[in-house]
Amino acid sequence: MKRSYGLTYAGPTALWFTLFFAAPLIIIVLYSFLKKGLYGGVEWQFSGEAYRALLNPTFAAITLRTLFSSIIATLLTILIALPCGYFMAKSKNQTLLLLLVIIPFWTNFLIRVYAWIAILGNNGFLNELLHRLGLTRDYIQFLYNQEAVILVLVYMYLPYAILPLFSTIDKFDFSLLEAARDLGATKVQSMTRVLLPNIRSGIFTAVLFTFIPIFGAYAVPLLVGGKDSYMLGNVIADQLTKTRNWPLASSISMVITVVTTAGVMIMLGLQKRDAQREAEAKRSGSITTQDEMGILSEGVK
Amino acid sequence: MKGSDVTIEGISKSFGDFKALKDVHLAIKKGEFFSLLGPSGCGKTTLLRIIAGFESPDMGLVSFDGVDVLPLPPDKRHANTVFQNYALFPHLSVFENVAFPLRIKKVPPKELQRRVTEYLKLVELDLQAHKKPAQLSGGQKQRVAIARALINEPSVLLLDEPLSALDAKLRQHMLIELDRIHDKIGITFIYVTHDQQEALSVSDRIAVMNQGEVLQVGTPHEIYESPATDFVARFIGETNLFDGEVTSVRSLGKGSGKGDLLFVHVDIPELGSIKVTTEDALEVGQRVSFTIRPEKIVISTERPSTQREDINLFEGLVDEPIYSGFQTKFYVRVSENVVFRVIKQHANYSDEGPEIVWKDSVYLSWSANDGYIVEVKR
C-alpha cells in the first residue's frame, strides 16, 4: 500500500504563504480600490480615486525619478560587481573573498546606512580628511541628495550582485578567453565577445536581485536623501503615516509591484529564450543554465 | 603566407621553485610537422604556451623567421592554437566560431562567408555550420577548433594534445586528417603530445622532452632506432634496457658519421657479455646503457644454426605469452632477474615454426647491429 504524504509536506508551506504572502497582497489590492477613511484606514466603498491620484504630476515625477535612480543604481552595481566577481573567480583565496563580501550582512542594515552618514556628513570623516589635507576650506555637502542615495544604494546591494555573478563566472571556462586572444581579439574584445555572452544568466540574476529591492527602497532615501531624492517607498510611508491615505499608499505599492513584476517577466522571458535555444542545441548533453534558473526563481519569491 | 621558421633559444621558465623549462634550444623549420613529445609535466605545454604568447619565459628568445615575437601579445602573433579541450565558444554556432577571427578583423560579409565556408569544407563540416558546439561529437569539435585556428592563415599552428580527448579509433582518423591538412596548407605545425605513436606516425621531426629539457631532436626513425638517452629509449616504444661496462672495443673501419664503427663487448652483470656495434667513441671500462627493441629479437624453440660472430644468443623460459592477433609478445626469463620482452610478428605461414607457448624453453638471438648503446655514463 502506498500512502501519499503530499499534503502533509505541502500543507505548512501552503499555509505560510497564504498567511504571509498572498493575504497581504490581496489586502493591498483590495485597499487600493476603496475609499480612504477620515483618520486612516478605509471605508468599505468602491473607489477609483487612489488610481486617479496617481496621475497627479507630482507622483508621476516621483515614479519616473524612482525608476531612473533605480536603473542608474542597478547599472553601477553591476558594473562594479562584474570585475569583483571576475577577480574572485580567478583568485586563489576565494573563501576569504566570499567571506569579505558576506560580512556586511552580519551588520544591521540601518547601522550600515548610519556608517555612511558618519563618513559623508558635514562633520564626517571625508570632510574632515579633505580639510586636514588642506584641500577644502568649508565642508562639502555630500549627504541629502540624489547622488548620496545612489551611492549608498549601490553599496547596500552590491553583494546581491557580486554573489550570482561570482557563481556564474566561477563556472566559466577561462581557456575560452585565451582562445579569443589567440584568435586575434584584444583583452577588451575577449571580455565583451566571449565572457559577457557566456555569463548572461548571472547578469540577469544580478540585475533582478539589485533592481527589485532598490526600486522599493525606503530607508536609504529617507536617511541620506533630500527632498529631491524621495522615492516611491517614502511616498508610501508618508501616505500611511502622515497623510493617512491608505488606498493611495496601496495603489502606489501596486505600481512598484507591477514594475518589478514586469522586470522579472522580461528577464525570465529572456532567460527562457536562452534556455530554449540551449535545449534545441542540446542533443549530446552539456552545460545548462538550469542551476542559475534555480537561484533565480528562488530570488523572485 | 606560408609557414615560418620558429627558433627557440635558451628558453627557461620557472613556476615558483619548479623549473618547467631549462635552457631549451630548438630550430623548427618552415612548413615542418614538429612534435614536442614527453610525459606530462615535462614542460612541452609550457613551451607551446610561450610560443603562443600565453606565458613569458624567464630567459631566452622566441623568433618567427628571425623576428623576435616575445614582446607581442597572443593576438599579434602569426600563430594560432588548437586547444586540448577545444575551447570552442559555447554561445556561438560552428559557423560563428570559425568566423570569430574574421569578425574581429571586420572582414566584409561576403568574403567572410566565402572563407568560413572554405575552411569548413577543409575540415568536412560545411553541413554542420548552423549547429552549436554542444551538438557536435568530440571529433567534430576538434575539427571546428582546427578550422578556427587556420582561418586567420597563421604561419604557425600550435596543437596542444589535440587528440587526447578522443577515443583510439577516432584518434587514428584525426591523425590522418591532420597530416592531410598539413600537406595541403604547408604551414609549420608544432604538435604537443605525450603519445609516442601519434608523434612517430605524423611528425617530420620530434623533440623528446623530460623534466624541462630537450633530450633528443630527430626524425621519428632516428628517435626510435637510435635513442640518445635511456629515457628516450624507454619512453619511445617498448625496449629492453641494461646497464653494463665496456670490456673490449674493436674498430670495423669508417662509420657513416664522423667516428669509426666500433664492435664492442659489454659486460652486463645480471646477463653476461653482449656484442653491439656503435659509432660512439667508447673505451674499455666505460659504463654504458644498452638497449635492444623487442621486435628485433628473434625467438625460436630450436637453437639457431648460425655461427656468425655478431649474433647474441641467450636461452630462456617463456614466462608469459600475450597474443594480440597480428603479433605475440613474450616475456622470456633468461636468468633470475632478467626478463626480456620479445615481439614476434605473425607474418606468414612460411616463417611460423611450431607455436611457442607458456613454459617453453626458447632461444633469443639478435645481431650486434640491432642493439644500441644509448648513454655513456660518466
Describe the structure.
The complex is a heterodimer of chains A (301) and B (378). With 301 residues, chain A is an all-alpha fold. Chain A has a single domain (35-300), classed as MetI-like (MetI-like fold), CATH 1.10.3720. Chain A has helices at residues 6-32, 49-54, 57-90, 94-102, 109-120, 125-132, 146-171, 175-182, 187-198, 200-215, 219-224, 232-241, 246-280, 290-300, and strands spanning 34-36, 42-46. Chain A has a two-stranded antiparallel sheet. In chain A, strand 1 and strand 2 (42-46) form a beta hairpin. Residues 283-301 of chain A have low confidence and may be disordered. With 378 residues, chain B is α+β, with helices and mostly antiparallel strands. Chain B has two domains: 6-234, 3-Layer(aba) Sandwich (Rossmann fold); 238-377, RNA polymerase II/Efflux pump adaptor protein, barrel-sandwich hybrid domain (OB fold (Dihydrolipoamide Acetyltransferase, E2P)), CATH 2.40.50.100. Helix content of chain B is 22%, strand content 38%. Chain B has helices at 44-52, 94-104, 109-122, 138-150, 168-185, 196-202, 220-225, 230-235; strands at 6-15, 18-28, 33-37, 59-64, 67-68, 79-82, 156-160, 188-193, 205-210, 213-218, 240-254, 260-268, 272-278, 287-292, 298-300, 311-323, 327-335, 338-345, 361-367, 372-377. In chain B, the strands form four sheets. Chain B has a six-stranded mixed sheet with strand order 6-7-8-3-9-10, with helices on both faces. A five-stranded antiparallel sheet of chain B has the order 13-12-11-14-20. Chain B is elongated and about 75 Å long. The mean pLDDT of chain B is 89. The interface between A and B is medium-sized, with 25 and 30 residues.
